[in-house]
Each structure stands twice: as structure tokens, then as C-alpha cells.
Amino acid sequence: MDLTTAQAANAVERHDCPQCEAPAGSPCRTRGGKTAAKYHTARFILVPALREELDVAVPDDRGPGRAWVPGPRIEAAEPTPAAAAIRIGYARCSTAQQELQSQLDALDRANCKRVFSEKISTRVKVRPQLEKALKLAYDLREAAPDQPVILTVHELKHLARNAAELMALSGQLQAAGVQLELLTGPLTGIYDPNGMGAMFFAVLAASAQIDRNYIREKTLEGQQAAAAKGNHGGRPKVIDDDMLTFAVALEAKGTPVPEIAKKLTIKTGKNAGRNPSVASLYRALAEAD
After folding, report:
1. Is 130 found in the same domain as 96?
2. Which of 2, 4, 85, 271 could anchor a disulfide with 148, C-beta 3.0 to 4.6 Å?
3. Is the same domain home to 114 and 36?
4. Residue 209, Cβ neighbours under 10 Å: how many?
5. Looking at the annotation, which residues are catalytic?
6. What percentage of the chain exceeds 90 in pLDDT?
7. Residue-level pLDDT at 283
């Protein structure tokens, strides 16, 4: 930031705050009625020179933390024309052993001044840094609707864990008017959800549905093929056919079921080498009957 703290504050306070509704000439306020320590993002991004800042502090002479008191009302600044697109970068790798720096370098070369990154398992549904990147993008679009905002990622696979998540995320980006940029891969480029890129977002949604249908069909085909071979899935039987034949013969001779269970030995599974339970044997004999 080339501006001093005082200069930045004066520039910010020339605008009404879209979030806390503080009028021009006053600092931002908290929900508790205190003077905020930082200006709200939706307000300071209205100043082109501050759009790349993560936060802008409220000067001490405004009394941060004290009861909010409106300053002298000034004429609000005219809306500024849209500047160059703001790129928000996001980088992710799944484990601590994977390398993240190459993604960060690529985002830096793409002129992403604000980058969010995290090393997080693909099993984790909530990704805090992605949520922060998306919130910033949405805040920028809400505060300055004419300002192009681009969410930039190194590759599409780093953005979502599966097709369903990708479809949901693309819908959010499209609704907010946030563009998506892919730096590598077969889909490299910038996609505007409200322009020609709308087709790309529609393809993402269709691809997600096709992916789900494909997985379902392959699963059903695999189950049918296994069933044709006599494998119906599930856990292996505790009492196989040979054991059952032997048990039926002993039962026919009048041997009590508990005694039969002691003469049988489980051949597979975690209970291999043990005798089956009496309850399991009763169920197997009932099915045989």
C-alpha cells in the first residue's frame, strides 16, 4: 500500500460502508456499537489503490474499540470506473508430503496479489482457506458490481474433491458473477459465467451428472458380473457349504446343535480357526431347511 494509514483512512471514509452502513466521514462500526479496528472489506475495496489489501486499519484518532460516534458528514465520492480484474488465487495439496510451492509460484506469475493456500486431506469436507477466498470474491462483487473478479487456481482438480462439489461450486461462482481461471490442464483459460464462459459452467454441471451415472452403471455391472459367478458380495460366510452338509448330517443323527457347533471350524475371515456360534449354526440350518 503506497498510502499512509491516515491517507488510506481518509480515502476509505469518502465512501458509505455497504456492510455496517456507516456514512461517509465516519469510521466503520461493529455490531456491538463500537468503532471497528479495521474498515470492512466491502468498503475499502471501493478505493482502487486499496483493492489488493487484506485489511485496512482504522487510525487511533478514530478511537477503535470505543463507542461509535459519527464524524462530520461529507459528500460521498463518485463511484470509480472498474479497474483491471482482481485475481484471487487458491492453492491446495492433499497432504503435508505433497509440494505446494509450484502452485504458489504459478499464481504469483498470474499476478494474483491475494493468495489463499492450505495443505489439507481430501477427506476433509470443509476447507477454510477456500471459504475465505470465495467470501472475498463474493464481497468484492457485492461492493463493486462492475469490478471483474477472477478466482484463479493452478488446475481444476485443486478446486474440488469430486464432480458433485465442482458442480455446486460452479453454481455459486455463476450466481455471484465471479470468473474462474485455470492455469494448466486441457481447460486452461478464463471463464466468465455471464459471458461465453457460461457454456463451460453448464458443461461442468452436465459432466458431474454423467460422472455420477457412469459410476452407478459400472457398480451395477460389477455386481451383476459377480452374482453370475456366485459372489453376491457382503462378508464371507461363517459356515460354508461343506460345514453345513456336515452339520445337517449330524443333526439328522440327533446330535444337539451346541455339540455340532463344537465340531465345526471356521476356515476364513477374522474368526478363522474358531468354532461358529450356536446362533449362526441355527440360522444356517434354518436356511438349509
Report:
1. yes
2. 85
3. no
4. 12
5. 94
6. 29
7. 86
Residue 190 belongs to domain with CATH number: 3.40.50.1390
Report yes or no on whether pTM surpasses 0.85. Answer: no
234 belongs to a structural domain: no
- 3-state helix vs strand vs coil in the chain, percent to 5: 40, 10, 45
pLDDT at 111 over 60: yes
Residue 216 lies in a domain: no
Tell me if 220 is assigned to some domain: no
Task: Report the SS3 class of residue 89.
Answer: strand
Which range marks the domain in which residue 29 is found? 1-65
Residues 41 and 8 in one domain: yes
Do residues 161 and 269 both lie within one domain? Answer: no
**pLDDT top residue among 202 and 247:** 247
Residues 147, 257: one domain? no
Q: 3-state secondary structure string, the chain?
A: CCCCHHHHHHHHCCCCCCCCCCCCCCCCECCCCEECCECCHHHHCCCHHHCCCCCCECCHHHCCCCECCCCCCCCCCCCCCCCCCEEEEEEEECCCCCCCHHHHHHHHHCCCCEEEEEECCCCCCCCHHHHHHHHHHHHHHHHCCCCCEEEEECCHHHCCCCHHHHHHHHHHHHHHCCEEEECCCCCCEEECCCCCCHHHHHHHHHHHHHHHHHHHHHHHHHHHHHHHCCCCCCCCCCCCHHHHHHHHHHHHCCCCHHHHHHHCCCCCCCCCCCCCCHHHHHHHHHHHC
For 79-108, the pLDDT digits (tens) are: 665 567 889 999 998 776 678 899 999 999
Task: For residues 198 and 90, state if they share a domain.
Answer: yes
C-alpha cell at 106: 504459478
Give the chain's mean pLDDT.
83
Residue 3 lies in a domain: yes
How many separate domains does the chain show?
Answer: 3
Residues 36 and 108 in one domain: no
